[in-house]
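WARN retry 2 of 3 for item q-0093 after timeout on previous attempt; input resubmitted unchanged.
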Amino acid sequence: MMNIYKYLLASLVLIGFASCTDDFEKINTDPNGITEESLTQMNNNVGNEFPPMFLNVFNVTPAWNYQLQQGLMGDVFSGYMTAPTPFAGNVNNQTYALVDGWNTFPWNNAYGSVMPQALNVKNAVELGGDPDGIKFVHLANIIKVTGMHRVADIYGPIRYTKFNDFATTGEYDPQDVAYKAFFEDLTSAIDGLEAYEGDVQFIPFDMSNLGGDIALWRQFANSIRLRLAIRVSKVDPSLAKTQGELALSSDAGLMTDSDMVINTGFPHPITVISGSWGDIRMGAEMESILTGYDDGRIETYFNPSADTALPGDYKGIRMGIDIAAKNEYGDHASIGSVIDGETLTWMTAAEVNFLKAEAALRGWAGAGDAKTNYEAGVTASFAQHGVSGVADYLADNSSTPADFVDALNSVNDIPYASDVKIAFNEAGSNEEKLEQIITQKWIAMFPDGQEAWSEFRRTGYPRLFPVVVNNSGGTIDTDIQVRRINFVESERNTNGANVEEAVGFLGGPDTGGTRLWWDTGASNF
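OK item q-0093 returned
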């Protein structure tokens, strides 16, 4: 019931914003300039646009929205989790029969509560007439890029650079154009916010643990810039190096010691999906890697299986197998205390250290030493989850991921395709080192399956198991695995000409088997 009240309160705030916009013209034409009352009103109007953005980069309520935005997409495609529920007779995303009705949610959340709100902030600041209002535009753009690069990493081409013009709002950008715009928006924000460090006006509107601290928001934006630079490192090495070195040298700094966490005011949606509904469980790859490494984070990430035949075992489910009924695998390991509370993590210090480790492999100036950054990433992840024994873990030069053994059906058994170890192999090739870095990065980013899926598609790591049942009708290769999601049906129905143009940007058909721009399929080095 409390959550219902919170949701109603958020709705009333948005309604209040709509009613306040009638005052913009009066404020903007005040013959005596901007009064303190007018400035406060403008800031409140702008501030009211931020809650929908904070709550829709990942949608947190209702839980089924998150389930369709992320849970039955990135979370399962990444190997993190698997649904024991055979939705639609087991003909669904997990068996590569991509469900159009499900796959609209990342798009709808972005174009319903992220892009319009960022535009509203820009328009309100322009109408308000206070030049210092630009700081709100920069902050909104940081959130916008955080959300929209995820949308681009699902579909490919998106509506971004032309969204603000009514005449062109339906037009798509090729993914490379969108990414270059992301870098421009981040750079403008990082540079433009420097003058506002110490400014307190964002404090009432900040739903993150950064507490409205502009210096910390610059640091977060710079860390996202490094994430995106690494993302494009194979397809456009020059752009990646330029942007990566800007991030590594910026006076904004990087989030190597702290996480970016959103205080949503709602229980983490996975607590409902896993706990109340029983609709998500440990993925087979998580079982193989965490148990093979004897990784202490497993106790935070998952609960032991409830099945009395598996006492104390952390048993996962391989995605894309033949499941007839939910009760078959429903008592396998559920999601653990990592999702307790009313927060949701956007970025971790561990990820940033792993980004630096890969940047070092690629020879980017200012990245430091790959081994040092790798070990800092693992250490930060252990600290984040309150797990001890990191020194012994990092010294382990023998443990490897375990082969997967299905608890119910040996048809689903599969060996893990690599003997990648934990202790950093300084004598290894760059490719071998990268597999270590990405495997540990994959562990550390849990439960953000969207980012994990993106990194798997970019690098091929960690080694994810192919599906057993492929219902794609040949559009998705079993071994290459799913690479993207089709353009949404509502866009085809209402914006068809622009969607057809966007399909041309893909370089392949509008299917889950077509690679994105940065997903080259080529060697990592």
